[in-house]
Amino acid sequence: MCGRYTQTLNADDLATAMSAVDETGGRLRESYNVAPTTEMPIVVVPRHPRPGGEGEGENRAGGGASERSAENEPGRVVRLATWGLVPSWAKDRAIGSRLINARAESVASKPAFRAAFAARRCLVPATGFYEWLRIGGSRKGQPYYIHPAGHPAADGLFAFAGLYEVWRHGEQPLTTFTIITTDAAPGLEFIHDRSPVVVPRSAWSRWIDPAVRDPAALAGVLRPAPAGVFTAHPVAAAVGSVRNNAPQLIDPVEVSDDLAALAADSVSGGGGNSVPQHEAVLVSEDDARSHARR
């Protein structure tokens, strides 16, 4: 599960990096500590134009064709959405806090996600994410910051595979999203058996194209990241509180002897992997929920 992440690009830079039009209306804010229920940017392909840029229309026959560019690529837009999917049929928006992630293995068939998987897929821009490494079964753990290897910790943009919905039972339409998870990347299973799905840049257009509705055509996207794509370093416990949001949250810190010994054991074979101590994608589904409440 992915329960905390960062998105540190401003609106202009994000739209440029995603080859998208910014429709956030100046409300996009960079964040070093994104938690569930936060409003954050997603990248989508509109199924048909929205008058004035408001709302999300229902699907129409042939919808989306008019937005394709001369190169026949879907036209991308950046919009704001609340993290935690609220299905269109839900009676209460509170369900969103329990649907911050969707499992890749069941996303095409589970009632909460199948409609969105068929027609409302999105990219969730991120520059990194956090997870907590547990030692000896303790409920407390060491937070880690995970980001693309070979990039500065705050600048390596990538995109999670997401789904979005528009809930219309309140005074105003509410757009929400969830992040899809899959098996952990090879060599990282000793940390946790799940990881957020990261969409390769080459598959961005296919993933968010509403004309692509065949699950088989999307199966190749829902795979673990290759080993070595991400790097991780320990960070201060301050990230555990959603009240904290500053660049210093991603700064590396020294780790305890116990944690160093655990990492050394995993490298030597005790944890069943061969990755260096600094490379790990740390994902805990239960822990993310508990930290999000703080």
Tell me the name of the CATH class: Alpha Beta
The parts where pLDDT drops under 50 for at least 5 residues are 51-55, 57-73, 266-294
Sheet with most strands: 8 strands, mixed
Indicate the structural class.
alpha+beta
CATH superfamily: SOS response associated peptidase-like
How many beta-strand elements? 13
Order of helices and strands, N to C? EHEEEEEHEEEEEEHHEHH
How much of the sequence is in beta strands?
Answer: 25-35%
CATH topology: hypothetical protein yedk fold
CATH arch. level architecture: Alpha-Beta Complex
Count of DSSP H/I helices: 6
Can you tell me the number of structural domains? 1
Could you tell me the mean pLDDT?
81
* Helical coverage, percent range: 10-25%
Shape descriptor: globular
The radius of gyration over CA amounts to: 19 Å
Keywords: Covalent protein-DNA linkage, DNA damage, DNA-binding, Hydrolase, Lyase, Protease
EC number: 3.4.-.-
Family: Belongs to the SOS response-associated peptidase family.
Region (Disordered): 44-73, 266-294
Short description:
With 294 residues, the protein is an alpha+beta fold. It has six helices and 13 strands.
What does this structure look like?
By secondary structure, the protein is an alpha+beta fold. It has a single domain (5-292), classed as SOS response associated peptidase-like (hypothetical protein yedk fold, Alpha-Beta Complex). The chain is 14% helix and 26% strand. The protein has helices at residues 11-17, 114-119, 204-208, 215-218, 257-268, 285-292; strands at 5-7, 20-22, 31-34, 39-44, 76-83, 101-103, 121-126, 128-134, 141-148, 158-167, 174-183, 194-196, 230-234. It is globular and about 55 Å long. The two termini are 18 Å apart. Mean pLDDT is 81; it is low at 51-55, 57-73 and 266-294. Its EC number is 3.4.-.-. This is Abasic site processing protein. Keywords: Covalent protein-DNA linkage, DNA damage, DNA-binding, Hydrolase, Lyase, Protease.
